[in-house]
Amino acid sequence: MRLLIAMMKHETNTFSPVPTPLARFGHGPGPLYGEAAIAAYRGTGSGLGAYLDLAAREGAELVLPIAAGAPPSRPVEDAAFEHIAGIICEAVAKGGFDGIMLDLHGAMVTESLEDGEGELLRRIRAIDPATPIAVAYDMHANLYDAMIENATVVSGYRTYPHIDIYDTAKRAGEILLKTMRGEVRPVMAWGNVPMLPHVMRQGSDDHPNKELQARVAAMSGPGAQGGALCASLFTGFPHADIANAGLSAVVVTDGDRALAERLRDELLNQAWSDREDFVYRLEPLEESLARAKALGSEARPAEPGGGPIVLLDHYDNCASGGTMDTTTVLAAILREGLDNVAAFAIYDPDAVSQAIAAGVGKSVSLSIGGKLKVPAIPGDSRPLAITGTVKTISNGRFRNKGPMGRGVLTDMGPSVVIDTGKVEIALISRHVEPSDLNCLLALGIDPMQKRYVMLKSRIHWRAGMGQMAKAVVECAGMGVCTSDYNQLAFKNVRRPIYPLDLPNR
Ligand SMILES: [Zn+2]
Q: If you average pLDDT over residues 422-444, what whole number do you get?
């Protein structure tokens, strides 16, 4: 057996000012290729890790031409897409494969295309119309016809935070192997409904996505509720001004199209009837901080976790395309005098260099953040003047502790911690969302010892730190992940769409 395995992942925020050249893909300057990619992902809790395990189990020969994944940002530069898709298609063209296993995101927009994954699959099918293809997609995929029609089996994450990346690829890969052995004949039905679920309301531990994902799991489980080979409900990525942004579903059955369509419609109807519960309700920043202050001053807060009060600077989440350099929430924390705080993080390579030049233990005055303009939203992102001691200097590299992406090498670039006395501020040089506990531990910050931890995150922080948090306060700051959709000029998304246009019932 001979398998082709590849990864191309990017979640595109069309409102983001952060560029997406080829160099953004990978753990260093660009993607990994061949043996280097295999070495980086074998044994990890990633999609590629699952495909590599399946190949090993089957004793398959494998070709892994490229592993390219970049943190979310603006549309992918055409040259970067052509390079990645070109490498994969070149490998396909050499032929001789029994199966193709792809680890894709599903919300890639390029400078020229709304649907990067669909175009990749179309090109593969044009070269090789026959070899079965399995695709693992992120729950934030925005589905297009070509992403389904040109694949044999498609599977999406069932958790957000995404702690089932490995399981999703394994599920897709297992169905592909059964298809290759002639045991099943997958047919797929997909569809969408005109709604943009808010990312802050998409967590799979919360209503309504919790119930939707439970139904998804039951559809392919044993017994009367089942019948599908696999089902997926994609909450979608709303910060993409493209026709098909939003919620969609795909169901795979063994040769039974009517069943696939019926189960798909059931998922879409359930999501549509829950649409009001996917809307996020805003709280002004002053109120959030006052609440945080009150929580922090309670002598014995009887809350679960026993760890810090988490302050979520969720408007500027780099894993949704944020610049990670807006300072509104951090400035308010300093102004309000909150004590024993760790803040992760401000993206500012220049400030990092200045702190490194000063050295550990030295006092520095820095102007941090506010350097990347965000034209898609009103107002100016301003730099913040801070003075403090350089507490930590790090190369910013760590392996994920998990459960999300366990074992995968993460690179924050050169990183420092500045201690202002009350607040320890992490400054980093590459965009990394704090989804893993090791992002703080690698910088010498133990969140269990902090009264507050400010995180630029929306839902993924729960993977690493959700269990330890005493309380969570969502802080509306500034950034391209604004919860106020009225600030974003949607032009291309299909209309009408809820909640932009359609009133509640
Ligand atoms: Zn996602």
A: 97
Residue 165 CA to ligand 1 center (angstroms) comes to 10
Q: Are 323 and 315 within 8 A, CB to CB?
A: no
Residue appearing with tokens 């997406």: 20
Helices (H), 198-256: 209-219
Q: How far apart are CA 342 and CA 330, in angstroms?
A: 10
| Omega within 30 of 0 (cis) for the link into 222 | no
pLDDT at 400 over 90: yes
Cα-to-centroid distance, 435 and ligand 1 (Å): 12
Would you call 389 helix, strand, or coil by DSSP?
A: strand
Between the CA of 17 and the centroid of ligand 1 the distance, in Å, is: 19
Identify whether the C-beta of residue 326 lies closer than 8 Å to the C-beta of residue 479. yes
Cα of 365 vs centre of ligand 1, distance in Å, is 37
Mean pLDDT in residue range 25-36: 88
Q: Is 218 helix (H, G, I), strand (E, B) or coil?
A: helix
Would you state the pLDDT for residue 140? 98
3-state secondary structure at position 379: coil
Question: How many angstroms separate the Cα of 11 from the Cα of each of 65, 127, 149, 322, 466?
Answer: 21, 26, 21, 12, 23
In 3D space, the residue among 456, 457, 437 whose CA is nearest the CA of residue 447 turns out to be 437
489 burial via Cβ count (<10 Å: 0-12, 13-18, 19+): exposed
* CA 168 – ligand 1 centroid, Å: 13
Output the six-digit token pair for 449.
């010892």
Cβ pair 109, 116 in contact under 8 A: yes
Spacing, Cα 18 to ligand 1 middle (Å): 18
d(CA 15, CA 376): 6
The helix (H) or strand (E) run that includes residue 283 is: none
CA-angle at 319, arms to 107 and 437, nearest 5°: 135
Q: Is the pTM of this model over 0.85?
A: yes
